[in-house]
Amino acid sequence: MLLIYRCLCFWHNFGNPFYKRKSPRGTMDRKIEKKYWSSKRIALFLGAVALMALVIYNLLFADHRSKLKVDSSRLTISEVKNGSFDEFIIIQGVVQPLKTIQLDAIVGGYVTQKLVEGGSMVEQGDIILRLENQQLKLSFLQSETEASRLVNDLQNTRQRLKVEKFTLDKTLNDLDYRIAEFKDVYNRNKVLFEQKAISAQEFTKCKIDYEKLVQERTIEIQSQKYQQENSQIQIRQLEGTLERTQKNVDLWRQTLENLVVKAPVAGLLSSVDVEIGSNINQGQNIGQIDDMNGFKIRADIDEHYISRIFSGLEAKFDFSDQVFSMQIVKVYPEVINGRFSVDLVFKQGTPKGIRRGQSTPIRLELGQPGKALLLPVGGFFSDTGGNWVYVVDKDGQRAEKRNITLGRKNPQYYEVLEGLEPADRVITSSYANFGDKEVLELKR
Fold first, then answer.
1. Averaged pLDDT of the chain
2. Which positions are tagged coiled coil (predicted)?
3. pTM attached to this predicted model
């Protein structure tokens, strides 16, 4: 603008036909006639117009966006296309036995023998360890002694009750004899008293003696009945105590048998974490046995997907150029270090050749396939968060920033919701070196 101003001033001072120069002192000025549109004036005018047009273009039409020249051979350019979107994730799983039996010490003790080492196959009932516990043996002997004492007490009580019953029977028999004797005397005296052969006093005394014996017999019968009932109660109590004591003895005997650790099932004894002479506490884990009749896969999944994972979800497992169908049978909801675990089993049998501890990728299906606009996965997402991308023009000479909206994601594609059209070409490699440039000028 300053240049334009100076040109106009020059034209005003020197190109104006009515401008009069001062003549030298003492002389008269003479008017010089000049052409208004001289070649010089035309050139100046055209230059001013061109300069003004350039300024206006820069202000209104020129591209002022920040640019960066980039070698296109170092970029990954992907095409947006319509296709089927499969919502799945790839998780890493580890092959484990279908069943794992933990060997825990039922009783404590110190190890006297270790008959099987870890990594060996065992059959059900095979002896793995022998333990020693003197306190358990002492308790067993005390329980046996108590049971024997109770047996003797029960036998003695029964014997005593038998003897007492004989004594009671004898007493009752003596009463019956005396009653019969006094009854006979009473009957004869009654006849004599009616005939007035004896006095009333003598008859009355005979009658009282007889009735007394009859009452004594009644009391004796009641007493014997009570003693018999009491004896039965004592015997039942002793029998109950003896039964409980014998159960206690059996329990102690089983406890002693648990000092011999046996394999509960057939399988692979994967580990035995004790040595001879070491002390084992009750409930302590001493190893595990793997059931080799089947396998499962345990996989860890990012906690981001915990609300979408449930039992019955389908998965695919590639092994030996074959695809095997799997499904989730158990979800462990506890989150550790941002991940949770699931167990998957094979739907049509375990693949041959699979081994315990083998690590393998699994394709876990999260939804049904559907039509969508697809953008290949790339490093751009970590720089933009999926909010914008660089879209390459048709000539392949430049790439411009464009805002977009992405939806779901699988390991191969993003679902495009807004901002892109089919056949658009997008730079999907990392944008880490581009800064905040709005336009990339691509060079080969």
1. 81
2. 228-262
3. 0.49
